[in-house]
Amino acid sequence: MLRDNYNYLKEIQNRWSSDNVNTDMPSGVVNSFDAYGAPLWQKASYLRLKNLTLGYDITRLLKVDKISARIYFTGQNIFTVTDYKGFDPEVENDRASYPQQKTFSLGIDVKF
């Protein structure tokens, strides 16, 4: 039985117990081996598109000589490909972190 006040991932419901021995999730009980040791290790390799900006100069479409304009899209933390079951493979201590937020922006940059 886990006796702290942490929020856990859904997978923790399938942890080892005497009634549930066919699982690869450790029990969560602190023991002399190491509470954060080998049973909890997992591959944390990942591929992430962290920042992307796409823009297009629309000055020619405006047909005005003294104005330049650009339309753009910017995204942060667009996607992550991983088999890691925690929040974020980039963070060392997953228990004390939040998932990185995704941010998308669409804008127009006009210069007179």
In short:
This protein has 112 residues and is mainly beta. The chain contains 1 helix and 3 strands.
Describe this structure in words.
With 112 residues, the chain is mostly beta strands. The protein has one helix spanning 59-62; strands at 46-57, 68-82, 103-111. It has 1 helix and 3 strands; from the N terminus they run E-H-E-E. The radius of gyration is 24 Å and the shape is rod-shaped.
Q: Between the first and last Cα atoms, what is the distance in angstroms?
A: 66 Å
Tell me the radius of gyration.
24 Å
Succession of helices and strands? EHEE
Assembly form of the protein:
single chain
Overall morphology: rod-shaped
Helix content: under 10%
Instruction: Tell me, rounded to a whole number, the average pLDDT.
Output: 80
**How big a fraction of the residues is strand?**
25-35%
Read across the widest sheet, the strand sequence of neighbours is 1-2-3
Secondary structure tally, helices = 1
Low-confidence stretches: none
The helix-and-strand class reads mainly beta
Task: Kindly state the number of beta strands.
Answer: 3
| Biggest β-sheet strands, sense, barrel | 3 strands, antiparallel
Any descriptors?
112 residues, mainly beta, 1 helix, 4% helix
Question: What layout of secondary structure does this protein have?
Answer:
Blueprint: E1 46-57, H1 59-62, E2 68-82, E3 103-111
Antiparallel strand pairs: 1-2, 2-3
